[in-house]
Specification:
This protein is α/β, with parallel strands linked by helices. It has two domains: 7-166, Rossmann fold, CATH 3.40.50; 172-289, N-(1-d-carboxylethyl)-l-norvaline Dehydrogenase, domain 2, CATH 1.10.1040. It contains 14 helices and nine strands. Strands 3-2-1-4-5-6 form a six-stranded parallel sheet, with helices on both faces. It has a three-stranded mixed sheet with strand order 7-8-9. Strand 5 (93-96), helix 6 and strand 6 (118-121) form a beta-alpha-beta unit. Helix 9 (169-196) crosses helix 11, helix 9 crosses helix 12 (237-253) and helix 12 packs antiparallel against helix 13. The longest helix has 28 residues, at 169-196. It starts with 6 loop residues before the first strand and ends with a helix.
């Protein structure tokens, strides 16, 4: 009988919870850590072991994954006073799935190498529904051998594993992807607010846009969420704002000015200031509606 790889997962937010359930479904022995322990306890009934610290989660694992909010959360989880990296066994692998800045990814990779280990950078595309269905896309930056070792783990959560090159490659494409998504969400929010202030039949107008040249998966999703105005979280608004900031900095380092990113970030920042930061990113439309019904 095949011995399953021991896995640890740090971070059980919108994405991490679904990832954990799919790891358990695939039969991987799983230890989880979350800053808010109640979210981790919810997985204990499904068979996960709950650790008190990132170090406690990582100490017996062969593969340690993280799905965290930003650079700061990642730094704390890996290198903080109770960080996972110092507790990991030689030969185990770091797998960072969060959306991070390329600068921090490079710094973390150097810290991993200094300890004689290797890192697989594997940020994901998809939202809560894809995480729960095991249909995420992993944008992998790693050497071939390290990626091959973690592929069985990633496969249990994914639709596709795209190997882009060395560590750092995934961060670049993930930020490009999220910059484009944020720009589409922001422009559609403005278009919808415009439609709502005309005499147009809203549903007919939206159906036309869905089927026409502007139509895309994200336009269809935003049309549904923005018209319902419930904003259940598929992708946190504050995290998209963060991703646009990271994208601007990463592009600037390559000599590219994202001139459209600044107004997009400003729109998301305004929605945060209005109290929508913990809602779905589609709530950005409320910053444009300006209190209109």
């Amino acid at each position: 009988m095949e011995t399953k790889i021991k896995v640890a997962l740090l971070g059980l937010g919108t994405m991490g919870h679904g990832m954990a359930l799919n790891l358990l479904k695939a039969g991987f022995p799983l230890t989880v850590y979350n800053r808010t322990r109640a979210k981790a306890e919810a997985l204990a009934a499904a068979g996960a072991t709950v650790a008190e610290t990132p170090a406690g989660a990582a100490e017996d694992a062969t593969v340690v994954l993280a799905m965290l909010a930003d650079d700061e959360a990642s730094r704390t989880a890996w290198l903080g006073p109770e960080g996972a990296l110092a507790a990991m066994q030689q030969g185990s692998l770091v797998v960072e799935c969060s959306t991070l800045s390329p600068e921090w990814v490079a710094e973390l990779d150097a810290a991993v190498r200094k300890r004689g280990m290797r890192m697989v950078e594997a940020p994901v595309t998809g939202s809560r529904a894809q995480a729960e269905a095991g249909q995420l896309n992993f944008l992998a930056g790693a050497d071939e051998e390290a990626l091959a070792r973690v592929t069985p783990v990633l496969r249990s959560m994914s639709r596709e594993i795209l190997h882009l090159g060395p560590v750092g490659s995934g961060a670049q494409l993930k930020l490009i992807n999220n910059f484009l998504c944020a720009a589409q969400v922001a422009s559609f929010a403005e278009a919808l607010a415009w439609i709502e202030r005309t005499g147009l039949k809203r549903e007919a107008a939206l159906e036309f846009l869905r089927k026409g040249a502007p139509g895309s998966g994200i336009v269809s999703a935003m049309a549904d969420r923005m018209t319902r105005r419930t904003y259940e979280v598929n992708f946190l608004l504050r995290l998209m704002a963060k991703d646009v900031r990271y994208a601007q900095a990463a592009a600037a380092q390559r000599g590219v000015e994202l001139s459209t990113a600044e107004p997009v970030e400003a729109m998301f920042r305004k929605a945060q200031q209005q109290g929508y930061g913990e809602k779905d990113m589609s709530a950005v439309v409320e910053a444009v509606r300006g209190g209109q019904p």
